[in-house]
Design brief:
This protein is mainly α. About 55% of the residues lie in helices and about 0% in strands. It has eleven helices and no strands. The longest helix has 19 residues, at about 90-105.
Length: about 220
């Protein structure tokens, strides 16, 4: 079990967070959605692809099947054809139809607002559930995607490897109510500046606060 972070570690992490907040004042979820169902579907689709590509596909998907009841009755092949540009279409199309059917049969066509219930849906893991809980239900949640994991290591917030371990380490550094917005800020920074291949340290707005600046 990891020891609790010290005062200096918490202070440093929160100072860096304030730097991210100043750099990305409009940080938000970048998956287009109008309700929890649309965000749930979009997040499932976002696996191994970009939010921008998902946003190009979901308008057609939701115009044809706008509700869980409609998507539950969809032909999987027809769904697969629409989402094919996103990759992993065979699995994703099956997940979407099956999770929609589960929403109808077990949740009266509504997206549940608990982690346990969301994780029981086909194709929904902890990361997807946290996106929905934080964005649509106001439940503070960390979204540990590849960007967040990479930056948590670079920022010195966690030295552990699994998403759950990183989540626990980071959550111990910040106020609970800040976790959802922190996820957006870190992920956007990872996409726009601190990229995997070549971190742009010379133009990084928090380089002076980052222990890994200039080392990549």
């Amino acid at each position: 079990m990891e020891s609790a972070p010290g005062v200096a570690a918490i202070r440093g992490a929160r100072t860096l967070q304030r730097g991210l907040a100043a750099a990305y004042p409009d940080a938000r979820c970048e998956l287009d959605h109008r309700d929890a169902f649309e965000l749930l579907v979009a997040t499932v689709l976002s696996a191994q692809t970009t939010d921008q590509r998902v946003n190009q596909v979901t308008p057609q998907l939701f115009s044809r099947w706008p509700t869980p009841d409609a998507l539950a009755g969809a032909d999987i092949a027809a769904v697969r054809e629409i989402i094919a540009p996103l990759g992993m279409a065979a699995n994703k199309s099956r997940f979407l139809v099956e999770l929609s059917a589960r929403l109808v049969s077990e949740h009266q066509g509504q997206v549940p607002g608990t982690l346990a219930a969301l994780e029981k849906l086909p194709g929904v893991g902890r990361k997807t559930a946290h996106v929905v809980l934080g964005e649509c239900f106001g439940i503070p949640s960390l979204t540990i995607d590849t960007h967040f994991a990479r930056l948590a290591h670079r920022f010195g917030w966690s030295q552990r490897e699994t998403p759950r371990e990183i989540e626990d380490d980071v959550a111990a550094l910040f106020a609970k109510q800040d976790l959802t917005l922190l996820s957006h800020q870190v992920i956007i920074h990872g996409r726009r500046c601190c990229t995997a291949r070549k971190p742009a340290c010379t133009r990084c707005p928090v380089a002076k606060l980052c222990p890994a600046a200039g080392t990549a």
